[in-house]
Amino acid sequence: MKSALWLPDLGRSVDNLLLHKLRTLLTMLGMIFGVAAVVAMLSIGAGAQQQVMAFIENLGVRNLIVEARETTEFQAYQKVRQQSPGLTFKDIRAMQATVPGLEILSPRKRFTPSQVIPKPQGELPVVYGVEPIYQQIAALKIAAGRFFTSEEAARAAPVCVLGEAARVRLFGLTDPLDRFVKVNAQWYHVIGVAGGQAVAQGDIAGVPGQDRNNALYVPTGAAMFRLEDNYSQFRDEIDGVYLRLKPDADILAAAATVRGILGASMSRMIASFAGWSTIISGGSLALAFSVSMAIGLVSGVYPAMKAAALDPVQALHYE
Questions:
Q1: Both 131 and 232 in a single domain?
Q2: What confidence score (pLDDT) does residue 209 get?
Q3: Range of the domain at 88
Q4: Residues 156 and 221 in one domain
Q5: Alpha helices, H only, the chain
Q6: I need a surface site. Which of 43, 108, 212, 315 has the fewest CB within 10 A?
Q7: 3-state SS class at 188
Q8: pLDDT digits 0-9 by tens, 149-171
Q9: DSSP letters of 62-81?
């Protein structure tokens, strides 16, 4: 019985829409683009949140990362050296002795090669010289093989662990274990492959964005003593430090101690994210359609109420 009351109204509505095709089309386009814009913004926000949280979790919420301020320009290098000898193992020893709540740390010596064999399909991988404890600090999972040992690190053994992207670019579908990679003039024995890691593709508070999947992990000494280029003389002894704090440590106090050891001009800390993915949730769709429906009702009901309030004679005269 009730359906019989609104069916004629529905028919008249459809007839009116068909009568004014252009106006109907423009209204539909407005609603479609409006819904799409709301869904797009909410999906980008949700994707950004998920990727940021994954990246922070991968870095470690109790980790501090120190980056050296390096330069390859001679005049700038001289100016910097007048203020500081750069980041050195002396700083590492000072951190181990004085940083409150420190659990473990690893120095880092990063090197960008000019030639790698096998020739990679894409960007050249970056060499990360780190200590074996870095695997624990970075929560680095080993997909195949193993990470290098303390004994191998002590003698600067020419061994390496490939990041996931480096493995694909260098060896494709071939098993890389027990194969060799030539970095500039130095051969490294592949002993392991790391699993995929979350990355931030943009700079992070001044820290250069790096794809840690496109990396070769080697012992710190194997990077320091076996690799060099024309700019090696301008670089610091080490160019980064990864620190992990104990669960009950005061991260602000630890960061202040590190800055006190290095000086404010020597270190940079992390926090900015880019390269976000998108996630479309049911809530975002419901919100978008609710907004669209509300706009449609307001834009339709308000003119109808104004028209209903007009005197019939005036309304017919206007028509």
A1: yes
A2: 55
A3: 62-262
A4: yes
A5: 2-19, 21-59, 74-83, 89-98, 134-137, 150-154, 164-171, 220-224, 251-262, 282-308, 312-318
A6: 315
A7: strand
A8: 999 999 999 999 999 999 999 99
A9: TEEEEE------HHHHHHHH
Per-residue pLDDT of 12-70, as tens digits, reads 777 777 777 777 777 777 777 777 777 777 776 666 656 555 555 555 567 888 887 76
Residue 68 contacts by C-beta under 8 Å, 6 or more apart in sequence?
A: 86, 87, 236, 238, 239, 240, 266, 267
Q: State pLDDT tens for residues 298-311.
A: 666 666 676 667 66
Q: Tell me which residue of 94, 73, 71 sits closest to 265, measured CA to CA.
A: 71
Average pLDDT, the chain: 77
**Token representation of residue 305:** 């109420």
- In this structure, the answer to whether residues 176 and 119 fall within a common structural domain is yes
Residue matched to tokens 């274990």: 177
Phi, psi of 141 (to 5 degrees): -90, 140
For residue 158, cis peptide bond before it (omega within 30 degrees of 0): no
Question: Confidence class of residue 231 from pLDDT cuts 50, 70 and 90?
Answer: confident
